[in-house]
Amino acid sequence: MSDFPIVTTGEDVTRQVLSDHPALMVVAFRFGKQGAIGALHDHVHVQSTYVESGRFRFTLGEVEREVGPGDSFVIPSKQIHGCVCLEPGTLVDCFAPRRNDFL
């Protein structure tokens, strides 16, 4: 269980840091309903995403792909990305280095 707070990041979307170190951070993003949005954005961190549950349509640069439970992928530094929730679920993201803005 994480001691970090659950933070609302959008309508029906929350974020919770699960573990953290200056070189790496693990974060759970929970999407509570179909249509919830992870807004398009970019950052300097390399990100890996693991779909724990649910289904999502991701935009990764110019490419869209649908992902579901067990899928995983890496997002390079500064690549624009975001998602739309197709079925409620949880994404587990790792960031290197850690996202200080999430602390």
Automatic annotation (TrEMBL):
Pfam family, one: Cupin_2
The Cupin type-2 domain, residue ranges: 35-87
InterPro entries, per database record: Bacilysin_H2HPP_isomerase, Cupin_2, KdgF, RmlC-like_jellyroll, RmlC_Cupin_sf
Listed name of the protein: Cupin domain-containing protein
Organism field: Pontivivens marinum
